Structure formats: structure tokens, C-alpha cells
Amino acid sequence: MAYVPLADQDHEMEMHHPHSFVEKYVWSQDHKVIAIQYGGLAVFTGIVGLVLSLLFRMQLGFPDTASFIDPNFYYQAVTMHGMIMVVYLLTALFLGGFGNYMIPLMCGARDMVFPFLNMLSVWVFLLSVIILMASFFVSGGPTGGGWTLYPPQTNLAGTPGHDMGIVLMLVSLAVFIVAATMGGLNYVVTVLQYRCRGLTMMRLPLTVWGIFVATLLALFAFPALLVSAIMMLFDILLGTSFFMPAIIESGSPLDHNGGSPILFQHLFWFFGHPEVYIVALPAFGLVSDVLSVHARKNIFGYRMMVWAIIAIGGLSFIVWAHHMYVSGMHPYFGFFFATTTLIIAVPTALKVYNWILTLWEGDIRLNAPMYFAIGFIFTFIHGGITGLFLGNVVIDLPLSDSYFVVAHFHMVMGVSPVLVVFAAIYHWYPKITGRMFHEGMAKLHFWCTFLGTYAIYLPMHYLGFLGVPRRYYALGTTDFIPASAQDLNTTITIAALFVGASQLLFFINVFWSLRNGPKADPNPWGAASLEWQTPDTPPVHGNWGDSLPTVYRWAYDYSVPGAEQDFIPQNTPEEEGPTMNDDGMDKEA
Amino acid sequence: MALAVVVVLLVVGTVIFHFSQAFDGPWYFTEIATNWGLIDFTINVTFWVTGAAFIILNLFMAWCVYKYRHRPGHKAVYEPENHKLEMNLTVITTIGVVAMLAPGLFVWANFVTVPEEALQYEVLGSQWQWQFRYPGADGQLGAADVSNVTEQNPFGINPQDPYGQDDVVVNDPNMRLAVNQPVQALLRSHDVLHNYTVPQFRVKMDLVPGMVSYLWFDPTREGTYDLLCEELCGIGHYIMRGSVTVQSQEDYDAWIAAQPTFAETQNIPEPDLAAGQAAYAICATCHGAQGEGNPQLNSPKIAGQQAWYLERQLKHFKEGARGGDGDTNGAAMVPMAMTLVDDEAIRNVSAYINTFPDEPSAQTIAGDIANGADIYDRNCAACHLDNGAGTWYTDAPALAGMSDWYFVTQISNFMAGIRGLHPADVYGEQMVSMATAMSDLEEINDVAAYINTLR
Amino acid sequence: MSLFKNVTAKPWERKGVIGGLEPEGAFESPNEKVALSIFLVVASVVFSLFTVGYILRMELPDWRPLSEPTQLWFNTALLVLSSVLFQWARNITKNDQEKNIRIAFFGAGAFAILFIVGQLITWDNLQNAGYFLTSNPANSFYYLMTGLHAIHLLGGLWVWSKSSIRLLSGAEPKDIKLSIELCTLYWHFLLIVWLVLFALLSNT
Fold this sequence. Notes:
The structure holds three protein chains of three kinds. Chain A is an all-alpha fold. Chain A has one domain: Cytochrome c oxidase-like, subunit I domain (Cytochrome C Oxidase, Chain A, Up-down Bundle). Chain A has helices at 10-15, 21-26, 31-61, 71-107, 115-134, 164-193, 206-238, 261-294, 302-315, 333-359, 368-391, 393-399, 403-433, 439-466, 484-516, and strands at 248-249, 252-253. Helix content of chain B is 43%, strand content 12%. The mean pLDDT of chain B is 93. Chain C has a single domain, classed as Four Helix Bundle (Hemerythrin (Met), subunit A), CATH 1.20.120. Chain C contains six helices and no strands. Chain C has helices at 2-8, 31-58, 71-94, 101-128, 137-168, 177-203. The relative contact order of chain C is 0.15. The mean pLDDT of chain C is 89. Chains in contact: A-B, A-C. Chains A and B meet through helix 4, strand 1, helix 9, helix 10 and helix 11 of A and helix 1, helix 2, helix 3, strand 7 and strand 9 of B.
């Protein structure tokens, strides 16, 4: 059966015109509205995660000043902060938010392939967030077992939320996986099947590549989390012994026997490591496009960038046990996983080189999005090289479970992706809202975020070198931690409070400019990719008016010698006209 | 422009900060105390390689931002890719990666191969304590299993196993090693994941319930080092502390000879209740004939308290770990405890006290029971149990039905640092740390009022 | 495969429209079939991970193999029949015919329902014989994996029942052609999964 395009037939168009407010903004099947819903919900959840982090930072910086932060709450806050930020904020925001908004526009499609499934996805995501938030209100509160949820600890009386909290967390994750799978199938099939005329895979912007490969990773990695969640729920609710060995709870032996906690860790990290790249790859893609547009230069080494995304995605499935060097697994695994982990550094380093080489000999416009993108390169280099410490198995011995780990992964998958999120939101804000944001406020937001987060995490590495363990409610007395470490912790907390508060600049800017920002040009940055070429700004339902665009070139024709402008939109025809039935490159077998 | 300057400043600042710490700064690696100098070497190699990359890449980026900033008439150069440059960069990166990985794998091979001459000892983790076991003269540790665990046999050593009889058991969280004697630590857990970490040793490994993991090292420097749990193990994770003392072979031999063997801990004679009763006469003047306590004399109820806890506290009073500065009521107890000449006398009187009927003591404290219940369930129940009965397993005494006013004074003492910080009170600091779950006297009263409902 | 050819192309060197006059997907199959195929890969990851967990857990000393009831052979036959009938239904609609389509389509679903009933009876027999979920990890895995397989089958039956209702309420077979094709693919997949599970469970 031949591919049937979502062509320009009248009855098809009809489908894309909602008739009432509810249809338009609540039960919407428009990918752009769904993207805003997904993103808004993710950011709302992320604010909860941010507030939690500031609360437990209070305990670390100013011990015992806030009376409600007891050990129980501390561990709950740490756990929920981690899970919210990794899964409910970053994964949902990059795939559900940016993926939904960008893919159809950048592919020149009217919408996702399955708009109804897309709508279902966001509502199931809402359900998972509700279940997650419900755990704050049940008896015992949310789980405090650490975001890795390692059994047997999470199920035992000595852990906060061991009764209802952990069950709700696992159920919420399972529901989230359903939502992510529905969305993910949509994104993948849309990229494969719904590209407009002339748009080959290698003409796609790197944003689409990053989100496409990340979605594939999500589709194949989340099952591992699902499997471990199901088996753990069986252990908790039905008394099986998949992960639970014979153990003692509060002095009395339990009925379990023979299970393997390490099996859980393998399953968890088989999901958990690709998860890092589920967050990182879309960020890589988005930042590549921001850098290229504002440097007025094509992304350097486009092919290498695509290959690196694919290589990183593939390798990410064979490095998971580098999270488990000191877990008691067979020590010989250390050789294999240290090697694969350091190999993955090569394509990642190449991406960094190419971002910098994109700036090289460019014509750099230092707009607010570009600030964030360049800030990202700095933080990502920093987070990347500390990964080389932890990935090298023997260096992990002294550093694992210390603050060095916390500092590393916050630099690499906290600060860096968040800088990209801001870069991307500022970059596409004019297209999404039709208004310009306040440039000065955006730059102030950048300075506060960039310098503030570095003030948080640079010192934290040194606490790790010292050997200060993570997940400690209080340091107590030790011989090796000097009193000055507390000063460092206080500094870090003040910086964190400052960064947390400065995010208000972002929200004020975004909401204020919505009404008061100057009307935006349809293509204010002079970008070549398709999403800037829509007939309406912001794009209306159906995106492309009467006819779908036709693509004549790749997404990076900037500063082409001899061209009138310093960019040529993808849908600008060549003089000689379309070459039809070209058998050179893209004909399917 | 400003951005380029800031990036340069950040690079310079980072490098200065790093060297300020690496050369004798307060926030850097502790002085190593084992043979694992090669790990530090690998770290240094990695520092040089990655440090060079950090500096070069960021400075080059800053230069690009400055040099190719937008100016009127300036135009970007059109260059889709430079395959040769990319290949060269790939090769250079690969060389750097190999330079870091090769020593890493070499050292890891050392780490996974335990030398023949390494002596074994066992580390047992449980919520939230460390215990240790050394093989006896036969050089073999006896078989152990969770199913054998009792208060008298906390290691779960199989009583039938002949190898286990001469095992030396250390039932407190302070262990010792002989300097320059390679050792292999066999790691075992009775409940959840823990992690055996001494920062100065550089190596660490998880304790996994249901299996035995290991690590090895050769202690090269004498001293006493903090032992920390570094795998999240529940609400008491941060109070799971211990120490490792590395000392000369002679001191170590003397110490280990003084420790009881497993067989000795199993063959303790039954306590002599008659002797306990005789010794109790002096206690009765304050604590009452049935151990019911007397608030007028500041004497808490002791009937119904767990025997192991009574024994431990009597020893603390004798050793001066309690009843010191600031603890006037406790000071009165010290001479009384001194009347118990030895451990056997302490055991006898504790056993006798255990024969008293356990009548809940009168309620003297009022407070917000709901708030107290919230604090108790969230923080206290993990050790003292939901019903306040306490258990030897978590070193938690009974609270339910005991003197509520005494609870308030003792928590206040923990919070004020009057109780629990003496070095001989090895479990006291745990309560000092946990007591912060209550922020003030009012909350202590709330919890006391809730505990009063648990009888 | 031209996807490979695609990613080695230098996209900046060629301008103009590549390909024909119409937009072109990477696969010629209908989008629903592409999506289903990807979903089947995802589902096989789930089952593979359970299998890996099964094999790793099996190594531990407390494992007592479960002797699988012989009734499973009968259940397997039911599922094979169900799959065969779906294939028949697909062939009928593929050739744009209508004869026997109802027999094939309804029969296929009916045998699948019988398979699930058979699985439930097996569970019941095991329970009565004292093989409970928590008695041994081998039992836990047995219930878990057969249950998960049955849930997947129920998901397929939901789609089947929707198409059946359409067929009963007068829809032409050609209207549910795509649905039949997708069901057939899905059923074959679940049959293969079942055969692998069956082999795994009965050989260990």
C-alpha cells in the first residue's frame, strides 16, 4: 500500500479546524497545543522539584534552621527532586514539549501522524503526574529511597514512604512509560513518514535528529524501567522474591528468599543510562540549531554530528554498568564497561569540537539564545570531562557516592540541558507566541543562571574529592572533613537560592512579553529551517495554509557565497527548478 | 564580548581554584593510607588530560566569540565540513582517552586480584550499624546466614560450624588492622545495601544482602580513620558511622587477643538473679522496689526496659560516658553504677530488673499528640519501632510506657550535646544526630505525649 | 538499504527537489503498520528483559524448576489456530474477496479467547496443586510472564472486538482490511513470543 500523504484535500483540512475553545485548548489534537500542554505540565512539575531541592539545600547549608526539614523529609525531598527532574521535567519537556512542537514544523507536516494518540499521550502524562503528586498526601508520604529506588531498601520500614509512597512512585512511572510510548511512536513515525516533498533525512535540522534518536532510545530503554517496576510491585504487593533476598526488617526476618538486588540495578541502569541521552540528545540537537542560526554559519560537520548522535545513542545501551562499579557485581564487568564508557567520549567530544568550530569564522550575533548556547558549551565541557573521571573504573572507587558524582551529573544533565531549554525557548519564542521577549531581562537571566549554577557545582566537585558522601542529612563529626566544608555548603546553598529566585526573571519575561512584547517578525533571526517559513506567526492549526512546503536544500544554507542574504530558507527553489525522479540519493527500494 | 571575557575568567578562576585546593587546600583528597597510590596516579593523569582539554577548548571558544563577533560588513565563512580536521581531532581525542583508560584498566586488574597473603576479615552491615568478624586461629571464617541471627548471635554464625567457633567478633563499630598487612574485606549485609568506605583507603564496595562482595587493600599508614556508609540505606544512612584504626602489629595482636570469640559469646552462663536482686537493693531506694521510677528523685522507670540497654547504660555511667558535665541527675547515678564491680554484676542486675512487671508509668507531659505522632512515625519509628518497643537490632531502647519526663530530659541532653558525644558512648552520636528531628522543647513534649499513647 | 546511503550523503552539495512529486515516507507501508512494527520491537524488548531476568534469577540457589502442565501444549495449539485463521482472513481481504471472511475473523478471535481461558485453567490447576505465586521464583516468573503475554493478547482482542462489531453492524470486509492486517501481524508476533516463552519455561 502506497504512502498516503496528509495532502491538501478539503476533507482532511476540515479535520484540522477545531470549533470551540475546549476543542482548541483542552481536548486539542494540534501538536502545538499539545506541546505547550506537555511543556507546561513538565515545567510545573519541575518547579516542584526545584523547590524541593532548595529545601534540602537549606538543611545542608544551614543545618537545623528549618524545623520541618527532618531526616525523613530530607530523604523524601532528595528522592522526589531526582525523579521529577530526570523523568517528569527533562524527558517530558524535551520529547513531549520540544518534540511535539518542532517535529511536524521542521518536517513540513501539518501535524503528527496520529493526532488522537498524541492527545491521549499528554492526558496519560497528566495522570502520571497526578499519581506522583498524590504520594505527597498519602500516609507515610512519598518514597525516600533515592531516585534509583534500590530494593530492598525502598520496601523496608527504615525508609520513608516504604508503604504507599513507593507503590505510587512505581505506578506513576509505569503510567508515564505508557504516555511516553504513545508519544514516542508518534514522533518516530512522523519523522519517518511525514516529511514533506524534497526533505530527505539528511536535510533535517539536527533538532529533529536529536529528538528522533532520543525517542528511539526512550522507546527501547523505558521497557527496562517498566519491567523492573512490575517486578518490584510484585515483590512489594504480592510477596514474590525477584529482588528481595532473605533479610531482616527492624529485627524480624521477612518471608522473602533468594532474590537479587543487583538484578534490579542492572535493569534500572539499562534504562537509566540511555535516559541520560534521552535528555542529552535533544539538547544537542536544539543547541546545534541555535548556534548555527546565531553564528550565521552552517553547523560544522553536519554528517559527523548526525553520526555522532546515532553512535552515542547506540553506545548508550552498552555502558549501563558504569553506574555499578562498586555495587558488588562481578568485578570483571569493570573492564568492559570502563572501555565502552570511555569510547563514548569520542563522539561526544566531536560534537563539542563541531559546536566550537561552528563559531569559528562565523558572524556571531550575541543574542540572548546565543548566550545560553555558548554557556551550554562551557558547562557541557566541564560536565563531560568529569564524566571521564567517573567512567574510568578505578577513579570511580574513591569518587562514587560522593558529592563529585552529584556535581558531575548536575553539570552534564542538569545545568547543561536546562541552559539549552532556555536557549531554545528564547530562540523559538517569537515563532511560538508571535511576540519578542525582553532581551535585557533574558540576558540578566542568563548571567544569574550561568554564573550561579557554576558557583553551586564547581565547589561541589571539591567536596567530592575530599570524600564527603552524598545523601547525608547531616555530616556529623568526622576527622577528615574540616569545619570549612560547612562554609562551602553554605555558599553553595546561597548560590542555589539565588539561582532558584532568578528563574523568576524567566517566567516574568515569558508571561509579560506574551502581551507586551513587540510584534515579532516571522523570521527574526533569519533562520533557514522550515519552522520559520510558516505562512502565519504563530503557526495556525494545520501549519502550512493551503499547500505543504517543498524543500530544495538542507537546513543550514547560511552565508552561502553569492547569495543575496546570509541565509537561504529550505523552501527557496534553485533557479534550475526541481530535479524530479532523481535516482541519485533518496529513492526507496 | 562580555561573554568571551567571562569565559576566560571562569577558566582562569577554575584553574586557580583547582591548584589552590590541590596544593594543600582544605577541600581535596585526604592523605592516602593504603597501597592504592596508583589510583591517585590515574586521577592525576586524568586531571592533566582533561584539564588541557578544558582550558584549550574554552579559551578557543572565547577567542572565536571575540574574534568572529558580528560587525558591520563582516560575513561568516561558508565551510560545511572539514573532514581532515575532524579526523585529526578524532585521533587526538582517542589518544587522550587511551592515555586515561590504560592505567585505569591496569589498576583495576590489580584491584580485582586479591594477593595470596591477604588476611580476610568480615564487615557486617545492618541498619544502621557496623560489626566486624576476624577469623580465629584456623584462619577461616565460619559459615553465617541471616536465618541464624538472634540478639546473642548478631552475625548469624552457624553454631554447628566448627570453623566459626574461634571467630573473633567485634560488636561495636570500631575495627582495627595491622599496618602493612594486606587484607581482604568480605562484605555482608543483613538487610539493605550499604557501602564500606574509608576515604583515606580510596577503595569502596557495596554490601549486598544475600551475597558476599569484597575489596582489598594494604594499610600503609597508622592512624584512626572514619568509616562511612556510602550507599543510601534508609533514614539512618547518615548516622551509620564507625572507625578503622591501623596500628602496629603488636598493638593489633594485643587488641585482637582481648576480643571475645564466637564460642565465648555463646557460652555465657545464665545471669544470677539472686545476686542481681541483692545488688538491686541500692537501686531500689531511688528507682523503686519494682523499678517503677520516682520523678521526685529524678529516677526514671527501668522496669520493662530492654536488658541489653540497661547493661550498656550502666557501663556508660561507670566509664564516665554519661553523668559528666551538665548532667547533674546523671552524675548522681555514677557512684551507684560504681557499686557494680564487673560486667557480670551488671548483667545480673539487668536480668533481675527484667523480671519486674511492666506497668506503664504515670503521664506527666502534655503536648500536641498529632504533631508528636507525625514526628515519631516519620523519624523515630525506624529504630524504636511503630509501637515504641525498641529492638536490639537497631540499638534502640524501649520508649512506650517508660517515664515521659525522662524522655524529655534525655532528648534535651542529646540536643545540648550533654549526652551521646563521649567517645565511649559509641552509639550515642546517632541519637544526637537524630534528635534534630525535634526542633524545640515543645516538639519534644509533643513526641512524649504521643509515646504516652503507645502503651 | 537507502537509509544508509542517506546518512552518508553530503546534503549541502545537492540542491533541488530530491524524490518524486509527492512527499515520501521512509517506508511504503501504511503509517499504522510502521507504528505497530515499532511497537512490536518495544514489546519484544519487554519480553527479552523478562527473559534475561529469568535466566539471571535462575542461577541463584533457591530456584526450583516448575514442571509445566501438559495442558500448555493444548493451549499452544489454540493459539496457533488463532494465528492461522487470522492469516486466512488477511489473505481473503488482501485479494479483495469476502467469502468466509466472517468465519476466519471471528474464529481467530474465538480461539484466542479460548487460549486465554486455557491459560487461566492452567493457573487454577497450578494453584490447586500448591504451586503459588510466592512459593518459588520459578513460579513467580511463570505467572508473571504468562500473565503479561495474556494481557498483550487482551489488548489485541480489544482491537479485534471493535472490528468485529463493525463487521456485525454491516461494515464491508474491505473497510476493516487494515485492521485485519495489523491484527494478523500482532497475532503472529504474540505466537512467536509465546513459543519462545513456552520453550524457555519448559526447558528450565
